[in-house]
Amino acid sequence: MAPRTLLIEADGGARGNPGPAGYGAVVRDSATGEVLAERSEAIGIATNNVAEYRGLIAGLTAAAELTADEVEVRMDSKLVVEQMSGRWQIKHPGLRPLAAEAARLVGRFTAVRFEWIPRDRNTHADALANAAMDAAAAAGTTTPAVEPPRVVEPPRTLSGPQPTGGGAATTAARAEAPGADLTTAPVSWEPRPSFTATRLILVRHGETEYTEQGRYSGRGDVALSPKGQAQVRATAARVAALAPDAAAVVSSPLSRCTATAEAIAAAIGEVPVRRDDDLIECDFGAWEGRTFAEVREQWAGELDAWLASTRVAPPDGESFAEVAVRCARVTERLCAAYPGQTVILVSHVSPIKLMLRDALAASDAFLHRLYLDAAGISIFDRWPDGGLAVRSVNDTAHLAEV
Question: Where in this protein does the record put region Disordered (predicted)?
Answer without folding.
Answer: 139-189
